[in-house]
């Protein structure tokens, strides 16, 4: 059975790196756990790091976190759905918002539960996912400030999540100015400007992050050590906190060219034959993991001689040429992962999960 590992020591190394970086720059930060898909043993490892604030986009995950660590502040990091308001107020201390009607419902529900619910207003900076448009911002805030049981604790933004718009000094100056304008007009203090995500971290070392941005929420770089701007690994961080091990279930020397009449496979793909491959054979290696669990585009094999041939729902096929490495049935093949690959594996009930 294929399985995923989380390396406790490497996770701690990455946490310490980020914690030192943020503290030395006067920045507070939270860990984003949505990639862990509510898997409690992995969430426990994150909570054991000592983080005080956790962000997630699934209410069921926040409920587990609150049950495991009631004192940790939980943040729901997408605009709430109307039918989920009760659970959001119950399990999230704060939520990201862009719609006045939704915040009004949160206010009413917080009153029923005897709570004050914190909100962070997300502002559109160009990536065109969630966010209030800048020219509507003052009217929006004026309405929100009048609601009972609601505390506006920050403004925020997301970049690079939908259209790939990259963060920049100018965009964060704009975000910081919005905060200053709101505070000046309404005589209200906005504690946090939460503009920072994994893709923003490189701006710190480049001294391009305005001082007004004082809060980050980080997932990908914690788990993969990734500098998302330069597509490298930060020096001193670990890239393989998470790793997949898939078992070889068949190795056979087979023709390179399929035999018979060919049409599209179940994934809708058609195979194009290279005439030079007629008569050639190669060793095909089949692993016990498939498209139901992960797309091979998100797998990074430790053995760079592997060539991905294709995949079906439950099996992945590799070309290992002459098998000079001496692989045999039953061997475990390790893979590093990209973020979206780890996400799908953690969401799969067919993949084993271990802490090492």
Features:
Elongation Factor Tu (Ef-tu), domain 3; single chain; 28% helix; alpha/beta; 356 residues; 10 helices
Give a short summary of the structure:
This protein is α/β, with parallel strands linked by helices and 356 residues long. The protein is 28% helix and 25% strand.
Query: What is the CATH architecture annotation of the largest domain?
Result: Alpha-Beta Barrel
Based on the structure, what is the oligomeric state of the protein chains? Answer: single chain
Amino-to-carboxy terminus distance: 17 Å
**Can you tell me the CATH topology of the largest domain?**
TIM Barrel
Query: What is the total tally of β strands?
Result: 18
Order of helices and strands: EHEHEHEHEHEHEHEHEHEEEEEEEEHE
The major beta sheet can be summarized as: 8 strands, mixed
CATH superfamily membership of the largest domain: Alanine racemase
User: What's the helix count?
Assistant: 10
Taking pLDDT < 50 over at least 5 consecutive residues as the criterion, the unreliable ranges are none
Helix content: 25-40%
Class per helix and strand makeup: alpha/beta
In the CATH scheme, the class of the largest domain would be: Alpha Beta
Tell me the count of domains: 2
Mean pLDDT: 94
Beta-strand proportion: 15-25%
- The gyration radius over C-alpha positions equals 24 Å
Overall body shape: elongated
């Amino acid at each position: 059975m294929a399985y995923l590992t989380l390396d406790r020591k490497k996770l701690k190394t990455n946490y310490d790196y980020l914690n030192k970086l943020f503290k030395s720059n006067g920045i507070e930060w939270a860990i984003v756990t949505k990639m862990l898909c509510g898997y409690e043993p992995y969430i426990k490892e994150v909570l054991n790091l000592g983080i005080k604030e956790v962000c997630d986009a699934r209410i069921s995950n926040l409920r587990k976190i609150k049950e495991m660590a009631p004192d940790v502040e939980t943040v729901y990091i997408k605009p709430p759905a109307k039918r989920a308001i009760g659970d959001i107020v119950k399990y999230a201390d704060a939520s990201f918002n862009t719609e006045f009607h939704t915040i009004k419902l949160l206010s009413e529900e917080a009153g029923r539960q005897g709570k004050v619910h914190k909100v962070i207003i997300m502002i559109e900076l160009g990536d065109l996912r969630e966010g209030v448009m800048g020219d509507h911002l003052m009217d929006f805030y004026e309405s929100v400030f009048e609601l009972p049981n609601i505390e506006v604790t920050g403004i925020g933004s997301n970049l690079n999540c939908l259209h790939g718009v990259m963060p920049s000094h100018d965009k964060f100056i704009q975000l910081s100015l919005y905060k200053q304008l709101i505070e000046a007009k309404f005589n209200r203090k906005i504690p946090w400007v939460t503009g920072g995500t994994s893709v923003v971290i490189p701006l710190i070392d480049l001294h391009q992050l305005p001082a007004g941005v004082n809060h980050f929420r980080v997932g990908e770089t914690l788990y993969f050590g990734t500098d998302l701007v330069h597509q490298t690994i930060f020096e001193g961080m670990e890239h393989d906190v998470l790793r997949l091990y898939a078992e070889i279930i068949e190795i056979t020397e087979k023709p390179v060219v399929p035999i018979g009449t060919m049409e599209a496979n179940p994934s809708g793909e058609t195979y194009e034959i290279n005439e030079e491959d007629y008569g050639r054979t190669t060793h095909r290696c089949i692993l016990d993991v498939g498209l139901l669990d992960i797309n091979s585009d998100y797998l990074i094999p430790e053995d760079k001689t592997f060539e991905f041939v294709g995949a079906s729902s439950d099996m992945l096929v590799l070309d290992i040429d002459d098998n000079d490495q001496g692989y045999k049935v039953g061997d475990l093949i390790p893979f590093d992962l990209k973020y979206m690959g780890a996400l799908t594996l953690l969401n799969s009930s067919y993949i084993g999960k271990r802490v090492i």
